[in-house]
Amino acid sequence: MTPPPASSGPSSASGTGTDPGPGGAPRDEADPAPEGVASVAPHAPAAPDAEAAARRARRSRIVQVVVIVAVAVGIALVPPPAGVDPRGMHMAGIFVGTVLALILQPLPTAPVALTGLAVAMLTGTMTTDGEALVGFANPTIWLIVASFFIADGFLVTGLGRRIALAFVARLGGSSLGLAYGMALTDLVLAPATPSNTARAGGVVYPIVASLSRVQGSTPDSDASRRRLGSYLALTSVQVNTVTSAMFVTAMAGNPVAQKAAADLGIEITWGGWALAALVPGLLSLVVVPWAMARVYPPTLTRTPEAPAHARAELRGLGPLSGHERIMAATFVLLLVLWCGGSLLGIPATAAAFGGIAVLLVTGVLRWSHLAANASAWSTLIFFAVLVGMADQLDALGVIDLVGGAVSGSVGGLPWTWAFAVLALVYFFSHYLFASNTAHIVAMYAVFLGAAVATGAPPLFAALVLGFVGNLFGGISHYASGPSGVVFGSGYVTTKEWFRVGFAMAVVLIVIWGVVGTAWMGVLGLLA
């Protein structure tokens, strides 16, 4: 894929649409064709190779659809076990088929969700008045959508790029300093950017690519890419998994986990999540660039030109514009409300919409920005449908059935060992997924229910599995949207990714499993 330009607009850089497709390359469902690819004249004869590739793609899609339908029908035909509503197995078949389609991607994400919803309504598995559309009234879903629009403000005003350049100007004298500068940029933007792909592809990666090329590091050869670009690019992905885990609003799947926990009677507030992730998150941001420099070291360690390059670009940007100042002030206000809104009686979703109103009234954002953000609207459809399906599975008794089976597999173990096994299985099963969110939708509620059944403290288990839903995003080149962005750049090979991804997974598991657990013990979450 073509690396995202530094001036990526809101609709191209914001959203969940860049989750990797089946081949590992990022897929932008908001665009009919990759940007920068020349269109073919209507009457121009297609090359034989192109025709053959198109035929293979059609055959592959047909096979995918057949597999999806076969799996869905097979599950739907299973007689409902005791305690499960007669519609339960039908709903399970439709849900599993939808999730499988999200993984195989015969269609983009939103069309897959709409197709699954249509099947559920047409078969009578979900009623149109009280079940099928309930997800569209969920405030958590609208918090995600609102956060996409807020994130647009960083891109439209250029404030996100300015922040990144400011950190590079101060820390960029070495490859390690550059990595820490990128980490701080990601951390600052994370609370208000639910698309980790937007942060990675719209803000961080363009800076990484620019700095790497200035230092003579391009994907053209192994010697050139390993000079600096490979290290910065892959480190940015590992850092992104950490910042995504630190805030409910830093990755689109986190509110889904929050909602699933609430359905089990476990309340996770924005501030509670952030506080629990604070110590392991900050420690990870210190350790990850350093560990990456040893696991995957660049051949260039000193970059004395980088700060000067960043300062020159900052001079070119000029002083802070009025819109940048408004965006920064709105962002700070939102952080205050998200952290302490419960004391003021202001829900997180209400605060987010208040922030959008400020940005619209002051002209920082226009309605055209919001209307053009296809990824935000696709996310609304995708999450609303899947949350509604998950609620229906719970209401029909399927979640209790599956949770009981999973908890039974670790029955007899002390809850500490049982939960450790469940968390590790949840983590490494992500090798089977090409999206954090799809994994969370498919497995979070089941594993949380199983963990609670083994005796694990409910809030502790909900938070740990919520963190894991982000931390596994760097284990493969197809694991998440940011992974797809970086892999498509050509700076990292598949073999390198699997080796380094596994090594960093171990590092993160140790930090969050040991230090994170100790910190949550201090907070009283293990009682």
Automatic annotation (TrEMBL):
GO function term, MF aspect, one: transmembrane transporter activity
One Pfam family named in its UniProt record: Na_sulph_symp
Membrane-related topology note: Multi-pass membrane protein
Record has Calcium as a keyword: no
One GO cellular component, as annotated: membrane
Biased composition (Low complexity): 8-17, 36-51
Region annotation (Disordered) ranges: 1-52
Major location (coarse): membrane
Transmembrane segments: 62-82, 140-160, 272-292, 326-344, 415-434, 441-468, 502-526
Lineage top rank: taxon: Bacteria
Keywords associated with the record: Membrane, Transmembrane, Transmembrane helix
Subcellular location: Membrane
PANTHER family found in the cross-reference section: DICARBOXYLATE TRANSPORTER 2.1, CHLOROPLASTIC
Family: Belongs to the SLC13A/DASS transporter (TC 2.A.47) family. DIT1 subfamily.
Entry-linked NCBIfam families: dass (TIGR00785)
Protein name from the UniProt record: DASS family sodium-coupled anion symporter
